[in-house]
């Protein structure tokens, strides 16, 4: 079910597939573009990430990588780091982490997060009850964690119903296509466009990602058919 706003302004969340489906229906009623996309791709999956250090590390691992490459590297990392905790990451040398497929920058970021947890009192699970702006501020204060990473954490780990990753390239490309824009929108421009999807911007993001993937698959099929 969908967790509603409370007197303490607890953010609305998408707790399961039924909640996501309900959000997609509501969004389809308020936006013609989303109605068309939903009819094409159906209700996309939640893409569950744990709301803890491991979930954040999975997102960091996938930064600027294709879904396939990110999944392959994360599978190696998750299998090698057991238990997946800050102290375990800090006990590994950089070369050993790099051998799993992590870039130098990502090794530095994971160790910076682990240090913040282990030595500076960062409580990542505690962010589950914090406002979106607080989550973004605390995460982006960490070395190597930018707005995209924080937004994705809100979307897939905390499942915030109105989170949105305006800096995501695929979302920008999908929005350019559906709004028939001459140029790909900037993060600021896409943020303004996404206002029409409140309070379901996270649902809109999932639908746009699904549509982007479907369009890429269709384009690949059309290219293969011409050969």
Describe this entry's structure for a reader.
The model is unreliable at 1-8 (pLDDT under 50). The chain has helices at residues 17-30, 32-41, 53-61, 67-80, 86-91, 94-98, 104-119, 132-140, 147-157, 169-178, 187-193, 201-226; strands spanning 2-3, 13-14. It has 227 residues and is an all-alpha fold. A two-stranded antiparallel ribbon has the order 1-2. The longest helix has 26 residues, at 201-226. The chain starts with a strand and ends with a helix. The chain has twelve helices and two strands; from the N terminus they run ββαααααααααααα.
What share of residues is helical? 55-70%
User: Count the strands?
Assistant: 2
**From N to C, what is the helix and strand string?**
EEHHHHHHHHHHHH
Overall pLDDT confidence: 93
The order of strands across the largest sheet is 1-2
Shape: globular
What Rg do the Cα atoms give?
A: 18 Å
What structural category arises from helix and sheet content? mainly alpha
Distance between the termini: 48 Å
DSSP strand content = under 5%
> Number of DSSP helices?
12
Q: Report the major sheet.
A: 2 strands, antiparallel
Stretches where pLDDT is under 50 for at least 5 consecutive residues are 1-8
Descriptive tags:
single chain, 227 residues, mainly alpha, 12 helices, disordered N terminus
Summarize the structure.
The chain is mainly alpha-helical.
